[in-house]
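Entry type: protein chain
Record version: 2
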Amino acid sequence: MAEPVTLLAPFAGRVVPLSDLPDPVFAQGIMGGGIAIDPEEVPLLTAASPCAGSVAKLFPGGHGVAIESAAGPILLHLGLDTVALKGVGLTALVGDGDQIVAGQPLVELAAASIRAGGTSLLTPIVAIGGQRVELVAAVGGQVQVGEPLLIVYPA
């Protein structure tokens, strides 16, 4: 029987509800339930894994990581329009099929240069397999890397 999984903050920042995102696919919950983090203003940012599991898919250029967790698939989407960067400013530290642990560095971002180009670093963390999610972090509040954000219940 699959167990619920607690997703941890991939980096420090402000907790933002998906409904506040300017991207309708995330804002309307089309991808699934979750939360977003607006990372603090730092020149370099390392996104840590929100949970243990395996890398189901590393998106081209490293702008997203799909993780197969004990509670089903989780998507960490680094920024909103980062696919347009084609990997510039992103350095993937893992690959498809890699076994990962919670807190493991997944992708390094040249945050200052990405922001300077006008790309949002609002990062949705979404349960993409139809799972139920329960928010544990305070919306609008600040979290540090590794602090609990959500509990995901297997579908």
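Comment: Residues 36 and 124 are 4 Å apart (CA to CA).
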